[in-house]
Every structure is written in structure tokens, then in C-alpha cells.
Specification:
alpha+beta
Length: about 100
Amino acid sequence: LLKAIYDLPFATSVRTHSIIGSGYWLIGTGDSDKVVPVSSARAPGVSSEKFVFAKHQELHQQNEGIAELFRLLMLHLRELDSQQHLSNTNTRDSSR
């Protein structure tokens, strides 16, 4: 399933990020979230990775993971706002 997801075509404007649970050792695989090894959770081509000390089923409830999600949403909102501002400026300039 993950291979199929990794092979999906994304528009060049789409950026992906990973928030990965870690801090628990699994015999034979190393660092994990007690379910998925970190090595399996890492996705190729992501713009950023954040490792959070959390179990698999609790990652979405951890303050550090929530803060990272909020940071990413704000980052993309600022970028979108900046692009929209530039677009509006260019539209006004071309109508003169």
C-alpha cells in the first residue's frame, strides 16, 4: 500500500510532510512508535520530517505533533497568502 502511495503522481506545487512517532525500540527494526518502525514510516521526497516521542495510536494527541501540524498549516497559509497578494498586485499592475 505504501509503495502505491509513494508512486502516486503529485503536482509539483504539492508538498508532503511526515510526523513520525518514535522513541520505542522494536527488536530487529530499531526505533519505532511501537507498531511501525521509523524506517518504514519515512516517506521519500517529503519537505520535512518531525519525530515525536509517541506511540502509534497516540501520535495525533501529542502536543508536539499537534504543534507541528499547526506550524505546517500556518506555513502553507502564509505562502498561499503571499502568492495571492502577488497575484493581486500583478493583476492591478497589468490593468493600468
